[in-house]
Design brief:
zinc; 494 residues; elongated; alpha/beta; aminopeptidase activity; single chain; signal; 13 helices; binds zinc ion; metal ion binding; M28_fam
């Protein structure tokens, strides 16, 4: 009996642990990469910093070691992504009514030009309320003028609530300048901080007015009062659903210098060449960037290390690459570590605009982001569920690896907040598959605590069990979708 029991025990131990040691991804594998990428030495991996240089070098080295070949356009690992930052420089301005200069007893104004120098005289000022009507269109005549816009827009239609959407609508309507008014509820400090934070943009996709900026309510009241108008009445009118704006009888003169910093960041791109040319490709992606030095100078910990977001995703991609490189697949398999996701999926958009092989060839794109959340045995959710014809196939592969399926579409709340969205906009079947978005209470707990703060660090408590299982799932998905006998695609016309 004892011997027999021992034998059974041995079989169980071997049966369970040996195969997973042989090919499964472990927490330790992932932890080693995260420890480097999320270390203070990498300074939070902000694009354009020394932290970027260290990050993209580490990824390229690890991917080379894993067996990938460099696949950027020039044959290197690094596909340049031209980015731009604008910062406040010296500025002078005056507002004039009926030929006299208005005296404004406030200096709560921030002005940023599209170009390094902006000089203009007699620019008419139009108050536009929230900038758009209830149908989302611009009602005010802003063409060649300066639009003053209320920042807060509770009454705006859903797709026009964001200041960015309203700014772009006003620019499309011909506005030369767009200045937001940091209306009530302490919005001015937020607006001011945003403008002074030198936000990163992808210049090829940016829609900017020649002059942009913000003023406080105090400044707006002083301006409007000096021109003989009543701010409260003006604002009350602007709350009407079909407010079409009013010319204020004010002209403005500007001389605005702007610090412009253009730099190339990098998407890291690697590849496993398939056996069957022209049979399509599987694409894995995940963003390498995070927020850099993110806390005030006097904080004890100033670095947003981004261990979960998204060192964990890069760790998974690297381990998946290493396992998939062990055999030759039918289809090509690409790996892309994107830049500037945190600034609005910029690296992914840049890739979608300038891919290294035709986007139509992608049979599935799998994004991996913020993956160290759930423990082992979590269900598998699909972000993008219902947007492609792949759900059933992905689920079947997941079930084969022993995973249960979360079949609700709740995870789709995150669909626009991840890099796959940039590819989906161009018709690529783009999904995010895994456990971290299956238990949304757990995800919300992270989003409400360490997320985007100095505490997103690697600790003994960092949960990597689910990420390891998700890595195994991504290996299984790669093995399946890169196999032309298992996953067949019918091309149009065939
Ligand atoms: Zn993030």
């Amino acid at each position: 009996m004892r011997l027999f029991l021992r034998a059974v025990f041995a079989v169980l131990v071997l049966g369970i642990s040996v195969p997973s040691l042989a090919k499964g991804v472990s927490e330790t594998d992932l932890r080693e990469h995260i420890a480097v990428l999320a270390s203070d030495e990498f300074e939070g991996r902000k694009p354009g910093t020394e932290g970027e240089a260290k990050t993209v070098k580490y990824i390229a080295e690890q991917w080379a070691k894993a067996g990938l070949k460099p696949a950027a356009g020039d044959g290197s690992w690094f596909e340049p992504v031209p980015l731009i930052q604008r910062g406040r420089g010296e500025a002078t301005y005056s507002f004039n009514a009926k030929g006299r200069k208005l005296r404004i007893v406030s200096d709560e104004i921030v002005l940023i030009g599209k170009e390094a120098e902006y000089a203009k005289k007699d620019l008419p000022v139009v108050f536009t309320g929230i900038g758009v009507k209830s149908d989302g269109s611009v009602g005010a005549d802003v063409s060649g003028k300066l639009a003053l816009v209320l920042f807060e827009a509770d009454n705006a239609p859903a797709k026009m609530k964001s200041p960015r959407a309203r700014r772009e609508a006003l620019i499309a309507a011909g506005a030369e300048g767009v200045i937001f008014v940091g209306d009530s509820q302490g919005n001015w400090p937020i607006l001011r901080r945003q403008l002074l934070s030198r936000p990163i943009g992808l210049e090829s996709r940016e829609k900017r007015a020649k002059l942009e900026g913000a003023i406080s309510t105090e400044f707006a009241v002083a301006l409007v009062t000096a021109a003989g108008r009543d701010w409260d009445k003006l604002r009350a009118h602007a709350k009407g659903a079909d407010y079409t704006g009013e010319a204020l009888g004010i002209d403005a003169d500007f001389n605005v210098m702007t610090d412009i910093y253009r730099f190339n960041s990098s998407n890291v791109i690697g590849k496993l060449s398939g056996k069957k040319k022209g049979s399509g490709a599987v694409l894995y992606m995940g963003h390498w960037d995070h927020l850099g030095i993110c806390a005030p100078d006097d904080a004890t910990d100033k670095i947003c290390n981004g261990a979960v977001d998204n060192a964990s995703g890069i760790a998974v991609l690297t381990e998946v690459a290493q396992r998939l490189a062990k055999k030759r697949h039918d289809r090509d398999i690409y790996f892309i570590a994107t830049t500037a996701e945190e600034s609005g999926l910029l690296g992914a958009y840049a890739y979608a605009d300038k891919p290294v092989f035709p986007l139509e060839d992608i049979v599935i794109s799998l994004n991996v982001d913020t993956i160290a959340i759930a423990g082992r045995n979590s269900k598998v959710a699909i972000i993008g569920r219902g947007t492609t014809s792949l759900d059933a196939t992905v689920e079947a592969v997941a079930r084969k690896t022993g995973r249960a399926i979360e079949s609700s579409t709740d995870a789709n709340d995150f669909i626009q907040r991840q890099d796959g969205w940039a590819l989906a906009q161009k018709g690529v079947p783009a999904l995010m598959v895994g456990g971290s978005f299956a238990d949304l209470d757990l995800m919300q707990k992270f989003l409400g605590s360490d997320y985007h703060g100095p505490n997103d660090e690697l600790t003994d408590q960092t949960e990597l069990g689910g990420a390891a299982e998700d890595a195994d799932l991504h290996i299984a998905l790669g093995n399946y979708f890169a196999d032309t006998r298992k996953y067949k695609v019918t091309k149009a016309g065939e």
